[in-house]
Amino acid sequence: MCANIHVGTQDQVINTAVGGAVSRELKMFEKNLPSNGAYKNLNYDIQWSSYTSGPPITNKMIAGQIQIGLMGDFPAVINLIKSREGKTDSTSTFIGTLAYSPDGAGNAVVVPKDSKVTSLKELKGATVSVPFGSAAHGMVLKALSDAGLEQGKNVTLISQSPEVGGSSLKSGQIDAHADFVPFGELFPYRGFARKIFDGAQTGVPTLHGIIVRDDFAKACPEVVTAFMKSVLQANEKFREEPEKMSAKIEGWSGIEKEVVYMFLGPSGLQPLSPEIGEIQLLALENSIATLKGLGKIKNEDIKPSDVREWVDDSYLKAAAKSLDTDVGTEVKKGETYVITGKDALDGSPITDPTLSAQIWVSGDEKISNYSSISSMVKALNGIKGSGKGTDVIFVHDKNKAWKLLASNAYYVRSDSGITAFLLKTDAETHAKDSGGVVMQFEALMKSS
After folding, report:
1. What is the Rg, in whole angstroms, of the alpha carbon atoms belonging to the chain?
2. How many Cα atoms occupy the beta-carbon half-sphere of 135 within 13 Å?
3. I need a labelling partner for 146 at 20 to 30 A (CA). Which of 4, 182, 371, 425 fits?
4. β-strand 4-9 against 176-179: which pairing, if any?
5. What SS3 string covers 383-416?
6. Is 386 exposed, middle or buried (0-12, 13-18, 19+ CB in 10 A)?
7. Which residues pair with 159 in a beta bridge?
8. Residues in a beta bridge with 193
9. How many CB atoms sit inside 10 A of residue 354's CB?
10. How far apart are the C-alpha atoms of 267 and 197, rounded to whole Å?
11. From edge to edge, which strands make up the β-sheet containing 390-396?
């Protein structure tokens, strides 16, 4: 049993690509596999397969064809529940986190770039697509409800995959599309959409993590520990060389390096952190509660709190110990992975990463960091004057510190400097309080 290992990944969902594609392509898992005792002279046959969503991975895990699966919180709890419904020879267990957001960042709602819509309230009477049963589905239902809109009454929801949703946005067949990592940033980066709502506005945690079949884990615990060890090593590799690894992940997944970096780089939207802590448990509990509300979980005996019995971090702890570290130390690395150093223009220290800005100059191996948007704008004028281009520019929302694509943010220029916001309403409120002026990126550059 231990020799044949099949791992199901989602390379395009870049939160799983770090533990999946990085470990796979750099042969980390193979290098960590045990070779002593019961594993001596074992001929390992490792297969990796990538899917666009979690359900196909779950189906193959139930069929005994996949032993380890990487997926988001909603698919994960469906996996955990289905494995306990008597239709499979083995239950499954959640054994570690790949990346997470304490407030829901990563899920998002986007509209066509030329749409005049700037908030969810303006979607009254609109058609919005979302992959049904996904974390984004739960997010958009809560977000629309908070905005005073009701499915089937004020807004029409239809189910579309990310690929179909993107095409529908381009062709004008829908008014908005809600999705999970990385599409809420990928579509705006590709130039045909604009984000009007970030999942972090719901305040509901979300994650992507690792599921294992229990029969496999019990028979081959050292193999599962080896996999968790490779995840920790992949996290470290990314933190050491975020630009280089983002470019490699682009080659492996087709997701542009700038979007990969936006999520997983320093001060990114979703920190790389392996623990199963209270935030992660709340994400899984909320997924069960939401799916029950949607009618996706029929078993009335299932309670959200049940998921706390379906997790096991012992393999993670063993993996950390084998690397001469511990889970707490690895968690701290994720929490402190923020923009630091000196301003690339004037050398001043970057003391507050939430006020910083970044430019990835075309052809440069590393991104340039700036202590403020004002400094970044000055630097950008110089870069353009030299004839160079830029691959991407990042700023951060003043209120929530979310990393934003500079081209899609709203800015307030006042006597105290330049601040950025995801939402136009937030920018207008700040402008009123500060005596500033609201403008978009093109106007900001022209005024500088």
Report:
1. 22
2. 37
3. 182
4. unpaired
5. HHHCCCCEEEEEEEECCCCCEEEHHHCEEEEECC
6. exposed
7. 130
8. 112
9. 15
10. 19
11. 368-370, 357-361, 390-396, 403-405
Q: Are 81 and 62 in contact (CB under 8 A)?
A: no
Classify domain 108-202 by CATH architecture. Answer: 3-Layer(aba) Sandwich (3.40)
* Two tokens, residue 214: 């229990």
- Please check whether residue 392 is in contact with residue 360, taking contact to mean a CB–CB distance below 8 angstroms: yes
* Rounded Cα–Cα distance for residues 418 and 176 (Å): 29
- What are the sequence ranges of the domains in the chain? 4-100+206-335, 108-202, 353-446
> Phi first, then psi: what are they for 204, rounded to 5°?
-100, 125
C-alpha span between 26 and 9 (Å, rounded): 15
Do 108-202 and 4-100+206-335 have the same topology in CATH? yes
Residue 133 has pLDDT above 90, yes or no: no
CATH code: domain 4-100+206-335 is 3.40.190.10
* Secondary structure letter of residue 348 according to DSSP: -
- Calpha distance 340→330 (Å, rounded): 19
Beta pairing partners, 140: none
- Does the pLDDT value for residue 254 go beyond 80? yes
The secondary structure element, H or E, covering residue 424 is: helix 424-434
Specify the amino acid at residue 136. A
Query: Taking the CB of residue 156, how many other CB atoms lie within 10 A of it?
Result: 15
Give me the residue label for tokens 């997924």: 287
d(CA 119, CA 440): 16
For residue 24 the two structure tokens come to 């796979």
Write down the residue that tokens 């791992």 correspond to: 7
Section 25-53 average pLDDT: 95
In the numeric block, which tokens belong to residue 272? 């790389």
Q: Which residues contact 242 (CB under 8 A, 6 or more apart)?
A: 261, 264, 265, 266
pLDDT value of position 47: 97
Dihedral angle at the C-alpha atoms of 264, 268, 272, 277, nearest 10 degrees?
Answer: -150
How far apart CA 33 and CA 223 sit, in angstroms, is 6
- What is the pLDDT of the chain when averaged over all its residues? 94
Beta-sheet strand order (sheet of 417-421): 417-421, 410-414, 437-440
Asked if residues 180 and 106 have their Cβ atoms less than 8 Å apart, the reply is: yes
First to last CA, the chain: 65
pLDDT tens readout for residues 227-242: 999 999 999 999 999 9
pLDDT digits (tens, 9 = 90+) for 69-81: 999 999 999 999 9
